[in-house]
Amino acid sequence: MNPNSQTPADGSTARGAALVIGAGGGLGHALVQALSADTDPDGYERVLSLGRSTLPALDYDDEASLSAAAAWVAQQCAEQSLDLRLLIVATGFLHGESGLPERSWSQLDTDYLSHVFRINAIGPALVMKHFLPLMPKQGRCVAGFVSAKVGSIGDNALGGWYGYRASKAALNQLVKTAAIELTRRNRQSVCVALHPGTLATALSQPFAKTGLTVRTPASAAAELLSVLARLQAKDSGTLIDYTGKVLPW
Ligand SMILES: NC(=O)c1ccc[n+]([C@@H]2O[C@H](COP(=O)([O-])OP(=O)(O)OC[C@H]3O[C@@H](n4cnc5c(N)ncnc54)[C@H](OP(=O)(O)O)[C@@H]3O)[C@@H](O)[C@H]2O)c1
Could you read off the pLDDT of 26-35 as tens digits, one per residue? Predict the structure, then answer.
């Protein structure tokens, strides 16, 4: 049985919806595909997806778009008597018009730092504000925020990538904090930061090195969903990788 469809203690509906934010990205798209193809009869009744190209659209540069998208999700769930039992946030930024990850402190740049913090930390924080209140107050529910191992301070042996590392470390702290608040609201909830491993997507493409193990987004999606399905309330507030291993903060 899929643990996401456990019957809540209050006897309310066990039917669940899953929501992926960042559905247009390499990993986000693969997560939507995997959830939609799930043939487990105890799987999610409905898979919702949001991103900058969906209707409604969700863009971290416009908080009103998050508020409107959350109202849409609430309406979709209410219309079908579904509880939002799984939320995965698969957005992220490493390189783009605002710059490249830094090799040295000499390359630190206000515009790049502002952007990487906005997409990797502030955006997911606004997701917490608008979407975590939609999760049920009873019964198992899971929120997974895709972070990165390089956001781990304890694991930082190589240096470099100041902005990306720091923005993911900020995300990790936000996840830990939200996990505590979510547990006060629902003792069976799980809220974790996730490391997907190195994937063949646009985000990592310029940094591909020979000898590095690069996996497909489809493999990562399957592995992350399997990890999320196994997590229990006691695992909430951790940074966990695609094999289920807990990483240091
Ligand atoms: N790829 C890797 O090797 C790797 C390794 C470790 C961790 N990660 C993490 O895995 C997650 C997924 O990355 P990916 O590889 O799938 O990258 P990706 O293909 O570049 O996807 C990035 C996602 O972020 C979204 N996004 C960017 N700016 C946004 C904004 N202003 N508002 C809302 N959404 C925005 C994109 O939305 P649009 O579709 O609208 O563009 C897209 O869904 C990220 O958190 C990344 O840091 C990736």
Answer: 999 999 999 9
Q: What is the CATH number of the domain that holds 234?
A: 3.40.50.720
CA of 131 to the centre of ligand 1 (A): 19
**pLDDT tens track for 143-197:** 999 999 999 999 999 999 999 999 999 999 999 999 999 999 999 999 999 999 9
Q: DSSP string covering 172-219, please?
A: HHHHHHHHHHHHHH-TTEEEEEEE--SBSSTTTGGG--TTS--B-HHH
CA 8 to chain centre: 24
- Total residue count of the chain as it appears in this document: 249
Q: Are 88 and 150 in contact (CB under 8 A)?
A: no
Q: How many domains would you assign to the chain?
A: 1
In-domain check, residue 7: no
How many angstroms does the Cα of residue 78 sit away from the middle of ligand 1? Answer: 29
Tell me which residue range forms the domain holding 139: 16-247
Q: Which atom of ligand 1 is nearest to the CA of 21?
A: 43
The model's pTM is 0.95
